[in-house]
Amino acid sequence: MDYSKPTLLVISGPNGAGKSTHIQTMLPAVFGQIVSFDRDSIRTEYELALLEQDISVDMISKRATELMESKLVEQMKIAISQKEHFVLETPLSHADYWNYLNLFEDNGYQIQLNYLCLDKVNDCVARVGQRVLEGGHYVAPDTIRGVYEKNLEHINQYKTTFQRIELYDGMVVPTLLAILEEDEVTWAQKAVLKKAWVKKGMPAIARNISDFLKAGAK
């Protein structure tokens, strides 16, 4: 990846995978001074502000999310106007999120995906539950499961969107499992194919990795 070109670095994964906690450890060195837009903390700030206004409690979460997304788009457009690298932490489970990627791609950016995942969706649910106890943002278990499955499905289907893909296991700390450049595997650990989310959730990518590992074993 030639980071002299304007680059969008997408940090993605299911809810509870640890993206916000570990995001700085997954950035290339040239991104070291860039701070990712933290969706959850910005949304929480808006929710707290809205609590002080004359607005229905039932509408606070929806309105806070709208304000957060508006601020994110504003920051993305500023970065694009200045051709600066940008770090976007986002799920990829819905077409609306891919519109963000299209915005950068249409403006000449190359796109890298660093994907952090856990092998069991129930571990994601448990982590989000713990996060709520510590004052973090709540996400319903059914939503977590839907995001978990759709993320993998969409990445597997639209993998050529990304000039580089890095896959990370997030069970303890982010551990790099595989790297793909221009849809070709350039490095992989054997352990990557023991991860169900790779083998079953990303079958096309898993086949590429399997072929790479078999070729290296000859």
Provide a descriptive summary of the structure in words.
- By secondary structure, the chain is an alpha/beta fold.
- The chain has a single domain, classed as Rossmann fold.
- The chain contains eight helices and six strands, in the order E-H-H-H-E-H-E-H-H-E-E-E-H-H.
- The chain has a six-stranded mixed sheet with strand order 2-1-3-4-5-6.
- The protein is globular.
- The mean pLDDT is 90.
Name the shape in a single word: globular
CATH architecture: 3-Layer(aba) Sandwich
Order of strands in the sheet with most strands: 2-1-3-4-5-6
Q: Could you tell me the strand content as a percent range?
A: 15-25%
**Spans where pLDDT lies below 50 across 5 or more residues:** none
Structural domains: how many? 1
Distance between the termini: 28 Å
Largest sheet: 6 strands, mixed
SSE order, one letter for each helix or strand:
EHHHEHEHHEEEHH
> Can you identify the CATH class?
Alpha Beta
**CATH level-4 homologous superfamily:** P-loop containing nucleotide triphosphate hydrolases
Mean pLDDT: 90
User: What is the CATH T-level topology?
Assistant: Rossmann fold
What descriptive keywords fit this protein?
alpha/beta, Rossmann fold, globular, six-stranded mixed beta sheet, 8 helices, 6 strands, 17% strand, 218 residues, single chain
Write a short abstract of this structure.
This protein has helices spanning 19-22, 39-51, 57-81, 95-105, 121-133, 141-157, 196-199, 203-217, and strands spanning 7-12, 86-89, 110-117, 164-169, 175-181, 184-188. By secondary structure, the chain is of the alpha/beta class. The protein has a single domain (7-217), classed as P-loop containing nucleotide triphosphate hydrolases (Rossmann fold, 3-Layer(aba) Sandwich), CATH 3.40.50.
